[in-house]
Amino acid sequence: MTEQGQLSPQLGEIIVVKIGGAILGTRDSTVEDIVELHRRSFWPVVIHGGGLLISEWLTRHNVPTRFERGLRVTDEESLRVVVAVLAGLVNKQIVAAIQAAGEPAVGLSGADGGMFHCRLAGENLGFVGDIVSVDPGPLARVLLAGVIPVLAPIGVLWEDDRPTAQLLNINADTAAGVIASVLGARWLAFLTDVPGVKSASGEVIPHLTAEEAAGLIADETIQGGMIPKVEACLTAAETGTQSVVLGTDQPGALLTVVAGKPAGTIVGGGT
Fold first, then answer.
1. CA-CA distance, 109 to 182, in Å (whole number)?
2. Assign residue 260 a region: left if phi > 0, alpha if psi is -120 to 50, beta otherwise?
3. pLDDT tens digits, 93-118
4. The CATH number of domain 14-267, selected from 3.40.50.300, 3.40.720.10, 3.40.190.10, 3.40.1160.10
5. In terms of DSSP bridges, do strands 187-192 and 265-267 run parallel, antiparallel, or are they unpaired?
6. pTM metric for this prediction
7. DSSP string of 180-225?
8. DSSP 204
9. Which of 31, 84, 98, 185 has its CA 20 to 30 A from that of 44?
10. Which of 44, 16, 64 is closest to 176 using CA atoms?
11. Tell me, what DSSP letter sits at residue 23?
């Protein structure tokens, strides 16, 4: 396995971009920003969700769905839909959009090349996985080929240090933080349908330290789907990655951030 920090020195500045399911299909500059960053010699790695579309397809197929601790309980029947939507429809839509904008892209999942080594997150969650370790070799090879990887959050269950044939549903926010850490990314950006992390009064907080973030989670100012995003930012920040949560309503949001201009909420890094 390729160890953290031991990737090829030929790799340039990596920016991990997590696209939330709520913004898929909306009109914003996300794809254009990713393509422009690639042309500026950054190395974008795209990780995406797709929860809303999964729920829509589960409803179409009359498959019940429920959540525990913000995670979708995934039985055998719903896993088929999760894999089909994430690794299939959503993944290829993003790949096609990037290529239509003028840059090459390839769709992958954490199961491809044995990237995500996972364990079950909990018996009550069904086929939901926690990432134990990552082999970033497949991603590094794609990046070195000059291609933008687009990663679906599907992993493989490992038992007794060996992969099984069991696929698992992975939280995309958590996966983004782990990937950013392992790749030694310069930036981790969560693109959402909200402008950033909000205070109790509803104002966007421009910067959060680890201690401040933990306090806001504890007092439930930070709730729901924002919790794994902030926690992933803190995970990545431990290895020097600058992390940000920002909305896509601002044209050129990603370009603004990498230019060092204020946007969204910086989590765990410098002001």
1. 16
2. left
3. 999 999 999 999 999 999 999 999 99
4. 3.40.1160.10
5. unpaired
6. 0.89
7. HHHHT-SEEEEEESSSS-B-TTSPBPSEE-HHHHHHHHHTTSS-TT
8. B
9. 84
10. 16
11. G
